[in-house]
């Protein structure tokens, strides 16, 4: 009862972020949307674990907070090295 | 009210799936599949399946995205044009879907309290676990001890997948193409000081948390698969921030190969030791004088074996992708 | 005392939810990548602080409060870092800031 408002807000934000992920013209918009959904999922897990009265489920939220960060950094590292490679190839052709 | 939330998340899942299928750019598809796995983990959690949600979270959001991007770096960015016999494909898919739906009509309704699994199997597990194994997390008891054969099969599936990838991508290509990369790397990493610092702060905590999840699997959601994925994610983060060569200094390839085989060997070895001590294969009660303590020791050992194999396989696959491309 | 705790908790949670929703609307309607990032960062900073504070009041002085504090710490540590990394990557790849109609007519 206590938590229904915040869970509704979190789910609505996930929907908005999903629309951004589908629409976003550049790939960075989509990475932003994935990061947003990840952090909202962490909050959702924390709140729902108290809704269900099982606070030992907080381990999941903790694991997710850490793993989400790794996923975003992996994507950015990938694009960085790809841009670096394309810049090196363009420099070699000149 | 909670069912409303579940229905809402399922709708989001459907939208995401349609968007994945519809997009031509494979990067977009990888991003959306990361969102897909996040939503699935939330649904598992709302259905009170915490172990599965933790595994989905650990493997789907972090590791799968990294490996998909590694594969994309070796292949193309845009999907090829599909072949032209699409009406036939559509008919086949629709017929298969109808057959599957018809098949589910025979199963009991989800959560029906009179279903055989709820009246015979589940009460037996819930009542007998304190007597035989005496750990609070019944899921670990079921997957480790009562259904130990299945988990042994799963470990061997992971092992085989690792072997398959190493066959395809094993030998690293010559390092000539790395020259311009490493000199430009310093210029690129200069902009990434903050993520590097924060990442280096976090890696010990992620490793510690992975060990916590490994050994706490008997008391709270956790276990070998989840812990293996979390520890592999920590090393992958180190490889992303400091370069793959430094990560190979931490866990060299021969150690990873040893871990892949060693975990499965540990699991099977525990089973064989049980045979030699007079019990059945994977009957942990004979490991110690007290059968309950024997079960607990057996669970600890096999979960360690699972965690070691999963870590080894995920890191080997990551290094195989990273060494082959200029990623 | 219990009722008061519940009311304060509900206020914190709902305010956090409102901020998260505002951030979500901003991420959808803002014209540019960097402005969207700015809007989304609300959901990473003030949102978790209020929501986790609200949940902490429900938890009492046991182990879950330590785990919640750890979750909050990691979210506050990794959220701005991810935003920084994303903005650096976008800038290096050539995405230009600005690009919407400013009142002065300049870009």
Overall description:
The complex is a heterotrimer of chains A (94), B (327) and C (107). With 94 residues, chain A is mainly α. Chain A has helices at 4-23, 27-51, 58-93. Chain A is built from three helices and no strands. Chain A starts with a helix and ends with a helix. Chain B folds into two domains: 1-107, Four Helix Bundle (Hemerythrin (Met), subunit A), CATH 1.20.120; 115-327, no CATH class. Chain C has one domain. The chains are: A mainly alpha (94), B mainly alpha (327), C mainly alpha (107). Chains in contact: A-B, A-C, B-C. Chains A and C meet through helix 1, helix 2 and helix 3 of A and helix 1, helix 2 and helix 3 of C.
Output the keywords:
heterotrimer, A: 94 residues, mainly alpha, 3 helices, 86% helix, B: 327 residues, 2 domains, 0% strand
Which secondary structure elements does this structure contain, and how are they paired or packed?
The complex is a heterotrimer of chains A (94), B (327) and C (107).
Chain A: H1 4-23, H2 27-51, H3 58-93
Chain B: H1 2-22, H2 26-46, H3 50-74, H4 86-104, H5 116-132, H6 138-146, H7 148-169, H8 179-190, H9 193-215, H10 224-242, H11 244-250, H12 253-276, H13 291-324
Helix pairs in contact in B: 1-2, 2-3, 3-10, 3-13, 6-7, 6-13, 7-12, 7-13, 9-10, 10-11, 10-13, 12-13
Chain C: H1 2-29, H2 33-59, H3 63-93
Helix pairs in contact in C: 1-2, 2-3
**What's the Cα radius of gyration of chain B?**
23 Å
* Total domain count of chain C: 1
Low-confidence stretches of chain C: none
Report the total helices of chain B.
13
Net shape of chain C = elongated
Structural class of chain B: mainly alpha
Helical fraction of chain C? over 70%
Secondary-structure element order of chain B, as H and E?
HHHHHHHHHHHHH
Strand content of chain B: under 5%
The oligomeric status of these chains comes to: heterotrimer
Number of strands of chain C: 0
The first-to-last residue Cα distance of chain C is 56 Å
Q: Given the structure, what is the number of helices of chain C?
A: 3
- Biggest interface pair, counts: A-B, 51 and 62 residues
Strand-residue fraction of chain C?
under 5%
Give me the strand/helix succession of chain C.
HHH
Calculate the mean pLDDT score of chain B and round it. Answer: 84
Write down the Rg of chain C. 18 Å
Major beta sheet of chain C, specifics?
none
Number of strands of chain B: 0
